[in-house]
Write a structure and sequence with these properties.
The chain has 458 residues and is α/β, with parallel strands linked by helices. 38% of the residues lie in helices and 19% in strands. The chain has three domains: 152 residues, 3-Layer(aba) Sandwich (Alpha-D-Glucose-1,6-Bisphosphate, Chain A, domain 3), CATH 3.40.120; 199 residues, Alpha-D-Glucose-1,6-Bisphosphate, Chain A, domain 3 (3-Layer(aba) Sandwich); 79 residues, TATA-Binding Protein. It is built from 14 helices and 18 strands. The chain starts with 10 loop residues before the first strand and ends with a helix.
Length: 458
Protein backbone atom coordinates (compact mmCIF):
# COMPACT_ATOMS: atom_id res chain seq x y z
CA UNK A 1 0.00 0.00 0.00
CA UNK A 2 1.46 3.38 -1.07
CA UNK A 3 2.10 6.02 1.57
CA UNK A 4 1.21 8.77 -0.95
CA UNK A 5 3.43 11.30 0.80
CA UNK A 6 4.20 13.45 -2.23
CA UNK A 7 1.63 15.86 -3.64
CA UNK A 8 1.99 18.16 -6.64
CA UNK A 9 4.79 20.07 -4.91
CA UNK A 10 6.59 17.90 -2.39
CA UNK A 11 5.33 16.79 1.02
CA UNK A 12 3.00 19.16 2.88
CA UNK A 13 1.30 19.13 6.25
CA UNK A 14 1.27 20.53 9.77
CA UNK A 15 4.48 19.76 11.71
CA UNK A 16 3.88 17.28 14.50
CA UNK A 17 1.10 15.57 12.55
CA UNK A 18 1.49 12.90 9.89
CA UNK A 19 3.30 13.10 7.51
CA UNK A 20 5.48 15.70 9.26
CA UNK A 21 6.06 13.86 12.53
CA UNK A 22 9.66 13.84 13.75
CA UNK A 23 10.12 10.15 13.00
CA UNK A 24 8.63 10.35 9.52
CA UNK A 25 10.75 13.37 8.60
CA UNK A 26 13.91 11.55 9.71
CA UNK A 27 12.84 8.52 7.67
CA UNK A 28 12.17 10.71 4.62
CA UNK A 29 15.65 12.23 4.96
CA UNK A 30 17.27 8.80 5.15
CA UNK A 31 15.20 7.30 2.32
CA UNK A 32 15.71 10.24 -0.03
CA UNK A 33 19.46 10.29 0.57
CA UNK A 34 19.89 6.58 -0.10
CA UNK A 35 17.66 6.56 -3.20
CA UNK A 36 19.32 9.61 -4.73
CA UNK A 37 22.82 8.30 -3.99
CA UNK A 38 21.98 5.05 -5.74
CA UNK A 39 20.44 6.86 -8.73
CA UNK A 40 23.36 9.24 -9.14
CA UNK A 41 26.13 6.79 -8.39
CA UNK A 42 29.17 8.19 -6.58
CA UNK A 43 27.92 11.36 -4.87
CA UNK A 44 29.61 14.73 -4.67
CA UNK A 45 31.62 15.83 -1.64
CA UNK A 46 30.88 18.61 0.79
CA UNK A 47 33.11 21.68 0.80
CA UNK A 48 35.35 20.29 3.52
CA UNK A 49 36.00 17.25 1.32
CA UNK A 50 34.82 14.75 3.91
CA UNK A 51 31.22 13.57 3.54
CA UNK A 52 28.87 13.80 0.56
CA UNK A 53 26.96 17.09 0.61
CA UNK A 54 23.25 17.93 0.47
CA UNK A 55 22.18 21.59 0.23
CA UNK A 56 19.21 22.67 2.33
CA UNK A 57 17.29 25.94 2.69
CA UNK A 58 14.06 27.12 4.30
CA UNK A 59 11.54 29.91 4.51
CA UNK A 60 11.02 31.83 7.81
CA UNK A 61 8.30 29.61 9.33
CA UNK A 62 8.83 28.87 13.03
CA UNK A 63 8.84 25.13 12.33
CA UNK A 64 11.48 25.29 9.59
CA UNK A 65 14.69 24.88 11.54
CA UNK A 66 13.33 21.92 13.50
CA UNK A 67 12.31 20.12 10.30
CA UNK A 68 15.74 20.83 8.79
CA UNK A 69 17.44 19.23 11.79
CA UNK A 70 15.19 16.16 11.62
CA UNK A 71 15.89 15.75 7.89
CA UNK A 72 19.61 16.23 8.48
CA UNK A 73 19.56 13.56 11.19
CA UNK A 74 18.16 11.02 8.74
CA UNK A 75 20.62 12.09 6.06
CA UNK A 76 23.55 11.88 8.45
CA UNK A 77 22.55 8.31 9.25
CA UNK A 78 22.87 7.64 5.51
CA UNK A 79 26.37 9.18 5.52
CA UNK A 80 25.64 12.67 4.29
CA UNK A 81 26.57 16.11 5.57
CA UNK A 82 24.12 18.97 5.10
CA UNK A 83 25.03 22.44 3.87
CA UNK A 84 22.70 25.06 5.34
CA UNK A 85 21.88 27.89 2.90
CA UNK A 86 19.65 29.55 5.50
CA UNK A 87 16.49 31.48 4.66
CA UNK A 88 16.40 31.72 0.87
CA UNK A 89 13.82 31.52 -1.94
CA UNK A 90 13.08 28.09 -3.36
CA UNK A 91 14.47 29.11 -6.75
CA UNK A 92 17.75 30.10 -5.08
CA UNK A 93 18.15 26.54 -3.84
CA UNK A 94 17.43 25.15 -7.32
CA UNK A 95 20.04 27.51 -8.77
CA UNK A 96 22.69 26.69 -6.17
CA UNK A 97 22.42 22.88 -6.04
CA UNK A 98 24.39 22.17 -9.25
CA UNK A 99 26.83 24.99 -8.51
CA UNK A 100 27.63 23.52 -5.12
CA UNK A 101 28.03 20.06 -6.63
CA UNK A 102 25.48 18.78 -4.12
CA UNK A 103 23.85 15.39 -4.39
CA UNK A 104 20.46 17.11 -4.11
CA UNK A 105 18.71 20.11 -2.62
CA UNK A 106 15.98 20.18 0.02
CA UNK A 107 13.74 23.18 0.57
CA UNK A 108 11.75 23.28 3.80
CA UNK A 109 8.75 25.40 2.89
CA UNK A 110 5.00 25.26 2.40
CA UNK A 111 5.19 28.03 -0.20
CA UNK A 112 1.86 29.91 -0.30
CA UNK A 113 0.21 27.93 2.54
CA UNK A 114 -0.52 29.48 5.96
CA UNK A 115 2.19 29.61 8.64
CA UNK A 116 0.98 26.53 10.53
CA UNK A 117 1.81 24.37 7.49
CA UNK A 118 5.23 23.39 6.29
CA UNK A 119 6.65 21.14 3.61
CA UNK A 120 9.65 19.42 2.06
CA UNK A 121 10.63 19.91 -1.59
CA UNK A 122 13.46 17.94 -3.17
CA UNK A 123 15.64 18.99 -6.09
CA UNK A 124 17.90 16.67 -8.05
CA UNK A 125 21.57 17.49 -8.53
CA UNK A 126 20.80 19.39 -11.76
CA UNK A 127 18.39 21.73 -9.98
CA UNK A 128 15.16 20.18 -11.29
CA UNK A 129 12.41 18.84 -9.04
CA UNK A 130 12.39 15.09 -8.61
CA UNK A 131 10.54 12.96 -11.14
CA UNK A 132 7.39 11.10 -10.12
CA UNK A 133 9.33 7.88 -10.52
CA UNK A 134 11.97 9.00 -8.01
CA UNK A 135 9.31 10.16 -5.55
CA UNK A 136 7.60 6.78 -5.78
CA UNK A 137 10.91 5.03 -5.16
CA UNK A 138 11.45 7.13 -2.02
CA UNK A 139 7.95 6.23 -0.82
CA UNK A 140 8.61 2.54 -1.49
CA UNK A 141 11.90 2.78 0.41
CA UNK A 142 9.99 4.09 3.44
CA UNK A 143 7.86 0.97 3.76
CA UNK A 144 8.61 -0.72 7.10
CA UNK A 145 11.76 1.40 7.56
CA UNK A 146 12.89 1.76 11.19
CA UNK A 147 13.43 5.20 12.68
CA UNK A 148 17.01 6.26 11.69
CA UNK A 149 17.33 8.26 14.88
CA UNK A 150 20.84 9.00 16.05
CA UNK A 151 22.91 11.85 17.40
CA UNK A 152 21.83 15.36 16.31
CA UNK A 153 23.32 16.19 12.91
CA UNK A 154 25.50 19.23 12.34
CA UNK A 155 24.43 21.77 9.73
CA UNK A 156 27.38 23.29 7.85
CA UNK A 157 26.67 26.97 7.10
CA UNK A 158 26.87 28.19 3.50
CA UNK A 159 27.20 31.95 4.08
CA UNK A 160 27.66 32.80 0.39
CA UNK A 161 24.35 31.25 -0.74
CA UNK A 162 22.22 34.40 -0.77
CA UNK A 163 24.98 36.53 -2.31
CA UNK A 164 25.59 34.06 -5.14
CA UNK A 165 21.87 33.93 -5.94
CA UNK A 166 21.67 37.74 -5.78
CA UNK A 167 24.51 38.08 -8.28
CA UNK A 168 22.80 35.61 -10.61
CA UNK A 169 19.53 37.54 -10.53
CA UNK A 170 21.29 40.81 -11.37
CA UNK A 171 22.94 39.12 -14.33
CA UNK A 172 19.53 38.28 -15.86
CA UNK A 173 18.50 41.94 -16.14
CA UNK A 174 19.45 43.48 -19.52
CA UNK A 175 22.80 45.26 -19.20
CA UNK A 176 21.56 48.23 -21.26
CA UNK A 177 18.62 48.92 -18.93
CA UNK A 178 18.07 50.00 -15.36
CA UNK A 179 15.12 50.89 -13.15
CA UNK A 180 15.97 54.55 -12.61
CA UNK A 181 12.80 56.59 -12.13
CA UNK A 182 10.64 53.54 -11.38
CA UNK A 183 8.55 53.82 -8.21
CA UNK A 184 7.81 50.27 -7.16
CA UNK A 185 5.83 48.71 -4.30
CA UNK A 186 7.02 45.25 -3.22
CA UNK A 187 5.26 42.81 -0.88
CA UNK A 188 7.53 39.97 0.30
CA UNK A 189 4.80 38.08 2.22
CA UNK A 190 6.99 38.01 5.36
CA UNK A 191 8.73 35.19 3.56
CA UNK A 192 11.96 34.13 1.91
CA UNK A 193 12.40 37.20 -0.29
CA UNK A 194 12.25 39.77 2.51
CA UNK A 195 15.97 40.60 2.31
CA UNK A 196 16.94 39.93 -1.27
CA UNK A 197 14.00 41.46 -3.21
CA UNK A 198 14.10 45.07 -1.92
CA UNK A 199 17.89 45.19 -2.09
CA UNK A 200 18.00 43.77 -5.61
CA UNK A 201 15.46 46.22 -7.00
CA UNK A 202 17.12 49.18 -5.30
CA UNK A 203 20.53 48.24 -6.69
CA UNK A 204 18.98 48.24 -10.17
CA UNK A 205 17.85 51.82 -9.59
CA UNK A 206 14.20 51.55 -8.51
CA UNK A 207 12.66 53.55 -5.69
CA UNK A 208 11.27 50.70 -3.61
CA UNK A 209 8.51 50.78 -1.02
CA UNK A 210 8.70 47.41 0.70
CA UNK A 211 6.04 45.77 2.87
CA UNK A 212 5.74 42.23 4.24
CA UNK A 213 9.41 42.29 5.25
CA UNK A 214 9.10 41.56 8.98
CA UNK A 215 8.89 37.77 9.34
CA UNK A 216 8.38 36.44 12.86
CA UNK A 217 7.80 32.77 12.00
CA UNK A 218 4.02 33.06 12.30
CA UNK A 219 3.01 35.78 9.84
CA UNK A 220 4.16 34.36 6.50
CA UNK A 221 1.42 34.85 3.83
CA UNK A 222 -0.93 36.32 6.46
CA UNK A 223 -2.88 39.15 4.85
CA UNK A 224 -0.05 39.83 2.46
CA UNK A 225 1.88 38.49 -0.49
CA UNK A 226 0.77 36.97 -3.79
CA UNK A 227 -2.38 35.40 -2.33
CA UNK A 228 -3.69 38.65 -0.80
CA UNK A 229 -2.58 41.78 -2.67
CA UNK A 230 -4.85 44.24 -0.87
CA UNK A 231 -1.92 45.70 1.07
CA UNK A 232 0.13 45.96 -2.12
CA UNK A 233 -2.66 47.77 -3.95
CA UNK A 234 -3.03 50.23 -1.09
CA UNK A 235 0.73 50.87 -1.06
CA UNK A 236 0.70 51.54 -4.82
CA UNK A 237 -2.02 54.13 -4.41
CA UNK A 238 -0.51 55.69 -1.30
CA UNK A 239 2.98 56.00 -2.78
CA UNK A 240 1.78 56.72 -6.33
CA UNK A 241 3.85 53.85 -7.71
CA UNK A 242 4.06 52.79 -11.33
CA UNK A 243 3.24 49.22 -10.30
CA UNK A 244 3.83 46.66 -7.57
CA UNK A 245 4.95 43.06 -7.19
CA UNK A 246 3.85 40.56 -4.53
CA UNK A 247 5.70 37.30 -3.85
CA UNK A 248 4.48 34.26 -1.97
CA UNK A 249 6.16 32.73 1.07
CA UNK A 250 9.05 31.04 -0.75
CA UNK A 251 9.12 33.55 -3.64
CA UNK A 252 8.66 31.02 -6.41
CA UNK A 253 5.67 32.98 -7.71
CA UNK A 254 4.82 36.64 -8.23
CA UNK A 255 1.63 38.61 -8.89
CA UNK A 256 1.75 42.23 -10.07
CA UNK A 257 -0.68 45.11 -9.65
CA UNK A 258 -0.65 47.98 -12.12
CA UNK A 259 -0.56 51.73 -11.48
CA UNK A 260 -4.35 51.66 -11.00
CA UNK A 261 -4.03 48.93 -8.36
CA UNK A 262 -5.63 46.32 -10.64
CA UNK A 263 -4.30 42.75 -10.29
CA UNK A 264 -2.09 41.30 -13.03
CA UNK A 265 -1.89 37.55 -12.51
CA UNK A 266 0.35 34.97 -14.13
CA UNK A 267 -1.74 34.96 -17.31
CA UNK A 268 -1.09 38.67 -17.84
CA UNK A 269 2.62 38.23 -17.10
CA UNK A 270 2.91 35.21 -19.40
CA UNK A 271 1.19 37.08 -22.23
CA UNK A 272 3.64 39.97 -21.77
CA UNK A 273 6.68 37.70 -21.75
CA UNK A 274 5.47 35.59 -24.69
CA UNK A 275 4.72 38.52 -26.98
CA UNK A 276 7.98 40.25 -26.00
CA UNK A 277 10.01 37.13 -26.79
CA UNK A 278 8.13 36.64 -30.04
CA UNK A 279 8.82 40.23 -31.12
CA UNK A 280 12.52 39.70 -30.40
CA UNK A 281 12.48 36.34 -32.23
CA UNK A 282 13.45 34.55 -29.04
CA UNK A 283 10.40 32.33 -28.44
CA UNK A 284 11.42 28.73 -29.18
CA UNK A 285 8.79 26.79 -31.10
CA UNK A 286 6.46 29.78 -31.24
CA UNK A 287 4.59 28.28 -28.26
CA UNK A 288 4.45 28.43 -24.49
CA UNK A 289 3.41 25.87 -21.87
CA UNK A 290 0.36 26.62 -19.70
CA UNK A 291 -1.72 24.68 -17.19
CA UNK A 292 -5.43 24.00 -17.46
CA UNK A 293 -6.02 26.88 -15.01
CA UNK A 294 -5.05 29.54 -17.57
CA UNK A 295 -7.95 31.66 -18.77
CA UNK A 296 -9.40 31.11 -22.26
CA UNK A 297 -9.31 34.84 -22.87
CA UNK A 298 -5.53 34.88 -22.61
CA UNK A 299 -5.13 31.75 -24.73
CA UNK A 300 -7.23 33.25 -27.51
CA UNK A 301 -5.21 36.47 -27.33
CA UNK A 302 -2.01 34.49 -27.82
CA UNK A 303 -3.49 32.47 -30.69
CA UNK A 304 -4.59 35.65 -32.47
CA UNK A 305 -0.99 36.84 -32.20
CA UNK A 306 0.37 33.62 -33.69
CA UNK A 307 1.56 32.11 -30.40
CA UNK A 308 0.54 28.55 -29.58
CA UNK A 309 -0.18 27.06 -26.16
CA UNK A 310 0.55 23.58 -24.84
CA UNK A 311 -1.75 22.91 -21.86
CA UNK A 312 -0.83 20.51 -19.05
CA UNK A 313 -2.24 19.55 -15.62
CA UNK A 314 -1.67 21.89 -12.67
CA UNK A 315 1.85 21.87 -11.22
CA UNK A 316 5.12 23.48 -12.17
CA UNK A 317 6.71 20.06 -12.70
CA UNK A 318 4.18 19.41 -15.48
CA UNK A 319 5.02 22.77 -17.02
CA UNK A 320 8.74 22.00 -16.79
CA UNK A 321 8.30 18.61 -18.44
CA UNK A 322 6.31 20.20 -21.29
CA UNK A 323 9.08 22.74 -21.85
CA UNK A 324 11.62 19.94 -22.22
CA UNK A 325 9.42 17.67 -24.35
CA UNK A 326 8.39 20.45 -26.74
CA UNK A 327 11.70 22.33 -26.73
CA UNK A 328 10.06 25.52 -25.39
CA UNK A 329 11.52 28.40 -23.43
CA UNK A 330 8.58 29.83 -21.47
CA UNK A 331 5.77 28.37 -19.40
CA UNK A 332 3.84 28.89 -16.24
CA UNK A 333 0.65 29.10 -14.25
CA UNK A 334 -1.96 31.78 -13.66
CA UNK A 335 -0.86 31.70 -10.00
CA UNK A 336 2.31 33.55 -11.04
CA UNK A 337 4.62 30.54 -11.04
CA UNK A 338 6.57 31.13 -14.28
CA UNK A 339 9.60 29.37 -15.76
CA UNK A 340 12.05 31.12 -18.07
CA UNK A 341 14.00 28.06 -19.19
CA UNK A 342 16.85 30.18 -20.54
CA UNK A 343 17.68 31.24 -16.99
CA UNK A 344 16.70 28.42 -14.69
CA UNK A 345 15.13 25.02 -14.08
CA UNK A 346 12.16 26.09 -11.98
CA UNK A 347 9.73 28.93 -11.33
CA UNK A 348 11.32 32.03 -9.81
CA UNK A 349 9.21 34.98 -8.68
CA UNK A 350 12.17 37.36 -8.42
CA UNK A 351 13.53 36.48 -11.84
CA UNK A 352 10.04 36.82 -13.33
CA UNK A 353 9.63 40.26 -11.73
CA UNK A 354 12.90 41.40 -13.31
CA UNK A 355 11.86 40.19 -16.78
CA UNK A 356 8.47 41.93 -16.51
CA UNK A 357 10.07 45.17 -15.31
CA UNK A 358 12.53 45.01 -18.23
CA UNK A 359 9.56 44.77 -20.65
CA UNK A 360 7.95 47.82 -19.03
CA UNK A 361 11.16 49.85 -19.21
CA UNK A 362 11.79 48.90 -22.85
CA UNK A 363 8.23 49.68 -23.91
CA UNK A 364 7.76 52.87 -21.92
CA UNK A 365 4.14 51.80 -21.41
CA UNK A 366 2.23 51.50 -18.12
CA UNK A 367 1.39 48.00 -16.92
CA UNK A 368 -2.34 48.71 -17.31
CA UNK A 369 -1.90 48.83 -21.10
CA UNK A 370 -0.70 45.22 -21.07
CA UNK A 371 -3.44 44.13 -18.66
CA UNK A 372 -6.15 45.53 -20.94
CA UNK A 373 -4.92 43.81 -24.11
CA UNK A 374 -7.33 40.91 -23.56
CA UNK A 375 -10.50 40.20 -21.61
CA UNK A 376 -10.61 37.22 -19.29
CA UNK A 377 -13.59 34.90 -19.38
CA UNK A 378 -15.53 35.08 -16.12
CA UNK A 379 -14.55 32.32 -13.69
CA UNK A 380 -16.03 30.92 -10.51
CA UNK A 381 -13.46 29.07 -8.41
CA UNK A 382 -14.47 27.37 -5.19
CA UNK A 383 -12.16 25.67 -2.73
CA UNK A 384 -13.89 23.25 -0.36
CA UNK A 385 -12.09 21.69 2.58
CA UNK A 386 -12.29 17.89 2.49
CA UNK A 387 -10.34 15.56 4.75
CA UNK A 388 -11.38 12.31 3.02
CA UNK A 389 -10.29 12.72 -0.61
CA UNK A 390 -12.38 10.06 -2.31
CA UNK A 391 -11.00 9.52 -5.84
CA UNK A 392 -13.17 11.35 -8.36
CA UNK A 393 -13.42 8.22 -10.50
CA UNK A 394 -15.28 6.61 -7.58
CA UNK A 395 -17.96 9.34 -7.60
CA UNK A 396 -20.29 8.48 -10.54
CA UNK A 397 -22.96 11.08 -9.76
CA UNK A 398 -20.36 13.85 -9.71
CA UNK A 399 -18.87 12.66 -13.00
CA UNK A 400 -22.32 12.63 -14.65
CA UNK A 401 -23.03 16.11 -13.32
CA UNK A 402 -19.74 17.44 -14.70
CA UNK A 403 -20.39 15.92 -18.15
CA UNK A 404 -23.88 17.44 -18.24
CA UNK A 405 -22.58 20.87 -17.24
CA UNK A 406 -19.84 20.73 -19.87
CA UNK A 407 -22.48 20.04 -22.55
CA UNK A 408 -24.44 23.09 -21.42
CA UNK A 409 -21.39 25.29 -22.05
CA UNK A 410 -21.48 24.26 -25.75
CA UNK A 411 -17.70 24.20 -26.04
CA UNK A 412 -17.39 27.88 -25.06
CA UNK A 413 -16.05 27.37 -21.54
CA UNK A 414 -14.96 24.57 -19.27
CA UNK A 415 -15.32 22.77 -15.96
CA UNK A 416 -12.31 21.65 -13.94
CA UNK A 417 -12.68 19.68 -10.70
CA UNK A 418 -9.52 18.51 -8.92
CA UNK A 419 -8.07 17.88 -5.49
CA UNK A 420 -5.32 20.23 -4.38
CA UNK A 421 -1.90 18.61 -4.20
CA UNK A 422 -0.77 20.89 -1.37
CA UNK A 423 -3.84 21.37 0.89
CA UNK A 424 -6.85 19.26 1.99
CA UNK A 425 -9.11 20.96 -0.57
CA UNK A 426 -11.08 20.21 -3.69
CA UNK A 427 -11.15 23.01 -6.25
CA UNK A 428 -14.13 23.51 -8.56
CA UNK A 429 -13.49 25.87 -11.47
CA UNK A 430 -16.16 26.88 -13.98
CA UNK A 431 -15.36 29.27 -16.82
CA UNK A 432 -17.60 30.69 -19.53
CA UNK A 433 -18.83 33.87 -21.21
CA UNK A 434 -21.85 34.37 -18.94
CA UNK A 435 -21.20 34.89 -15.22
CA UNK A 436 -24.75 34.08 -14.11
CA UNK A 437 -24.72 30.79 -16.01
CA UNK A 438 -21.35 29.63 -14.66
CA UNK A 439 -22.39 30.52 -11.12
CA UNK A 440 -25.42 28.22 -11.45
CA UNK A 441 -23.22 25.46 -12.84
CA UNK A 442 -20.71 25.92 -10.01
CA UNK A 443 -23.51 25.66 -7.41
CA UNK A 444 -24.83 22.50 -9.03
CA UNK A 445 -21.45 20.77 -9.10
CA UNK A 446 -20.65 21.85 -5.54
CA UNK A 447 -23.97 20.51 -4.19
CA UNK A 448 -23.54 17.22 -6.07
CA UNK A 449 -20.02 16.79 -4.70
CA UNK A 450 -21.06 17.52 -1.11
CA UNK A 451 -23.96 15.03 -1.27
CA UNK A 452 -21.80 12.28 -2.74
CA UNK A 453 -18.82 12.81 -0.44
CA UNK A 454 -21.21 12.70 2.53
CA UNK A 455 -22.54 9.36 1.30
CA UNK A 456 -18.99 7.98 1.13
CA UNK A 457 -18.20 9.14 4.66
CA UNK A 458 -21.29 7.39 6.08
Amino acid sequence: MSLRLFGTDGIRGIPGRYPLTSEMVRRVGYAAATVLRRRRGEPARARNGSLPGILMGRDPRASGLGLMRQLAQGMAKAGFAVLDAGIIPTAALAYLVPRRGALCGVMVSASHNPAEFNGIKFFAGEGFKLSLETEREIEDRLQDMPDPRGRPARLIADPAAERDYFDFLKSTFPVNLDLSGVRLAVDCANGSAYRVAPRLLRELGAEVFAIGCSPNGRNINRGCGALDIRALREEIRRRRCGCGAAFDGDADRVIFADEEGAPCDGDVLLSMAATDLQERRALPGGKIALTVMSNYGMIRFLEEGGIGAVQVPVGDRNVSEALDQEGLGLGGESSGHIIFRRFGPTGDGLLTALQILAILVRSGLPLSRFRKRFQNYPQVLRSIRVENQVPLEEMPRLRRCIRDCERRLHGDGRVLVRYSGTEPLIRILVEGPDRRSIRRISNEITETFLREIQAHVH
